[in-house]
Design goal:
Layout (H helix, E strand, L loop, with lengths): L6 H5 L5 E15 L2 E8 L6 E2 L1 E6 L4 H13 L5 E8 L7 H10 L15 E8 L2 H9 L4 E5 L10 H15 L6 H4 L4 E2 H12 L5 H11 L2 E7 L9 E5 L9
Parallel strand pairs: 1-6
Antiparallel strand pairs: 1-2, 1-4, 2-3, 2-7, 5-6, 8-10, 9-10
């Protein structure tokens, strides 16, 4: 596997990649009460960027997204959904690309093709933090950020993240989003927190628990959270074997 820092320049050229088309993946996890998004160093001026890349001539957008996700997370079976095409003619901040090409011109001499207009297909992926973090932590240029406290972003990537959040919010009444974000056994407070973050509002504890249990996706276990001797929280589990079938 090639070093991620050379992916754009080493693997993609104007000849082997689809002209003007890329994919960007919003990789989301839940950790310590926060929704996290995985970002990479863009390479100039401390900008961060989504994990994405250009589409090779011999692959579809979906295939490119799966390839990129496996490269950055080490996982191949990931909940992935295409949610929007970003095609604003002014979506690229050209100065960022000019600075990028100038900085890495010594690596490759064909970088000017990156100065063209690109449209990008947005995907969001839901992953369990503990399943990917060991792999991610080995890559110095990858970092988790609170989805509501983003750093300075490349191009329109902040907009792409916001649109992903909106898409997930719309899906929440249809499928149990927490299934892909939480471990096999979890506390109801964790699931409620996920909903609160995406809905951007506080939820009543008792009403939320009653509603979730009535929907039939979650069952209460005869277990409590270990490590807390007094009033340990009850644990819950999803009963759906694979929510991908509900999409």
């Amino acid at each position: 596997m090639k070093d991620l820092t050379t992916l754009t320049y080493e693997d993609h050229t104007a000849e082997n990649s689809h002209p003007g088309f890329s994919v960007d993946c919003v990789i989301i996890a839940f950790h310590k009460g926060k929704i996290k998004v995985l970002l990479r160093d863009f390479g100039i001026n401390n900008y961060k960027a989504l994990l994405g890349g250009f589409v090779f001539n011999d692959e579809s957008a979906d295939q490119a997204a799966h390839r990129i996700l496996e490269l950055y997370t080490g996982l191949s079976n990931i909940f992935l959904k295409q949610f929007a095409l970003f095609s604003d003619p002014n979506r690229t901040i050209m100065k960022q690309n000019l600075d990028y090409v100038a900085q890495y011109s010594s690596v490759r001499n064909d970088g000017k093709w990156l100065l063209r207009r690109f449209i990008t297909m947005g995907y969001f992926a839901l992953v369990k933090y503990d399943e990917v973090n060991d792999f991610v932590s080995e890559k110095k240029q990858l970092h988790w950020y609170d989805i509501n406290k983003l750093p300075a972003m490349y191009s329109d990537h902040e907009l792409i993240i916001k649109k992903a959040q909106e898409s997930i919010k719309l899906l929440m009444p249809i499928i149990p989003i927490g299934y892909e974000l939480l471990p096999e056994k979890f506390m109801m407070t964790e699931l409620r927190k996920i909903h609160e973050i995406f809905l951007n509002k506080k939820l009543d504890r008792r009403n939320f628990q009653r509603k979730i249990l009535q929907e039939g996706f979650v069952i209460q276990l005869d277990e409590r959270k270990k490590g807390k001797e007094y009033n340990a929280p009850i644990l819950y589990s999803f009963i759906s074997p694979d929510i991908k079938d509900t999409m």
